[in-house]
Amino acid sequence: MRIATYNINGTNARLPRLLEWLAEYKPDVACLQEIKTVSENFPVEVIREAGYHSLVHGQKGFNGVAILSREPATETQRGLPGDDADDHSRYLEAEVAGVRVASIYLPNGNPQPGPKFDYKLAWMARLAAHAQTLHGLAQPVVLAGDYNVIPTDEDVFSVKAMANDALMQPESRAAFRSLCFQGWTDAIRAVTPSGRVYTFWDYQAGAWPRDAGFRIDHLLLSPAAADRLRDAGVDRAVRGQEKASDHAPTWVVLAD
DNA sequence: ATGACAATCAGAGATTGA
Hints:
Helix content: 10-25%
Structural class: alpha+beta
Number of domains: 1
Number of strands: 14
Order of helices and strands: EHEHEEEEEHEHEHEEEHEE
CATH topology: Deoxyribonuclease I, Chain A
Oligomer: single chain
Shape: globular
Low-confidence stretches: none
CATH class: Alpha Beta
CATH architecture: 4-Layer Sandwich
CATH superfamily: Endonuclease/exonuclease/phosphatase
Distance between the termini: 6 Å
Strand order of the largest sheet: 3-4-2-1-14-13
Largest sheet: 6 strands, mixed
């Protein structure tokens, strides 16, 4: 069972690339972020013709998450619990083929310090609280998404260039570590313990051709899911296409 | 310190992103 996370940076702008990727890499479940459209305008019929069901939690203009699946999915959570005043569409969770899967679009947090960084940290605290409840489930759980956190200095092309960025502040990293320490396995690092594995390359300053990327898209596995981990990786070639998203799809394969 | 690049909404330029 192949489960992927892919920040597509706009459904309208990226639909041809999304369809090509689904056809070529054939994920069983695809957690999408930054669909940047309201739910009603998500191309559910086109996606269905491509062989996938859609669960969509959209928003006008920015944010928005979705879960595409070959088998029908049962929605288990829409929106991250813990703050009724938070109207950003950044969390969607479902059960697919016996696996609980979340599509996460964690706030960027720039500029820091400031209210956006405060929102990021508060959101991470809410995510940790919800993740704690999921960790107790007997069924495998996969928390997949764009976490907007560079976990360590090994996950970034230049520590100096990104030193002041919200993505790698000590508070962001501590919150991510704390989440992992609940007992979640960072799938990419379980398969590739060291070395540079990037999932994002900025559009600016020739970041892609000079491989100036960082690792911010993660799949965290519960113990039951980690037991079934067979492989994990990044579809780097997708980033090199014309009109690509600035993120590359990142995935795990779980034993059936 | 800033801007580079891209997408959205709107119908120009601001906002957001990372």
